[in-house]
Amino acid sequence: MQGWEIPKHNLCPPIPGRVDYIHYLADLLANSLGGSLSKNSPVRCIDVGVGANCVYPLVGVSEYAWSFVGSDIEAASLQSAERILAANPHLQANITLRLQGDKKAIFKGIVQANERFELSMCNPPFHRSAADAQKGSQRKQTNLKANAKNKSKLNFGGQSNELWCPGGELSFIKNMVAESQQFSQQVLWFTSLVSKEANLRAIYQALKQAKVSQYETIKMGQGNKVSRFVAWSYHSPAQQKQWLASS
């Protein structure tokens, strides 16, 4: 990978966890297919909030030769991602970047009428506000017995839209579920990371209200860290298999 540099104040992702998400998505598709998924299978994926680092598309293309549409509400983040792609021309053909002009929308304006995607993925902003992010950082530092003089600083980087949004992660994912109904025939599996396990119950309720055909939570682990993502589909298992078999 050449030229993987991101602006100083943007989020720097923990790579092992990001790679896990991609691998578990491949497993999700394999299960839908009822067998193994070839590394060269024609899979298209939407990365909601691709960010300045463009990490999910870079990993997905390198590992599985998938194609990606990466969306973001920040033009500066997309410019950074474009610079990374320019330094890696062998990956450019499989990655398209699109600016989301409506900060209240997720798929609208990004998914075009004639497009179909096997997957969508997202690492949503998990805090409700800058103050909430600050409190979370201080709790982590206290748990790590950090030096008291550093407690006023965030222990992670990231711009506001990367770290917080009104209502936090739960509100963001519920909005995503609601909007996903309009694209139910264009996306096979919708997915999103969920940082707070306590949010799962409300997310399940939203999925039931949306009348999805199937949903599940998939747990991932790296060392002592446990993470998870929720996946949902409006297609029955038979329809999922038919979709993938005909791709």
TrEMBL record:
Biased composition (Low complexity): 143-153
EC number: 2.1.1.181
Top-level enzyme category: transferase
One GO CC annotation: cytoplasm
GO molecular function: 23S rRNA (adenine(1618)-N(6))-methyltransferase activity
Swiss-Prot/TrEMBL keywords: Cytoplasm, Methyltransferase, rRNA processing, S-adenosyl-L-methionine, Transferase
Chain spans, region Disordered: 130-153
InterPro entries according to UniProt: METTL16/RlmF, rRNA_lsu_MeTfrase_F, SAM-dependent_MTases_sf
Pfam families: Methyltransf_10 (PF05971)
GO biological process: rRNA base methylation
Keyword Amino-acid biosynthesis carried by entry: no
The protein's name in its UniProt record: Ribosomal RNA large subunit methyltransferase F
Species whose genome carries this gene: Agarivorans albus MKT 106
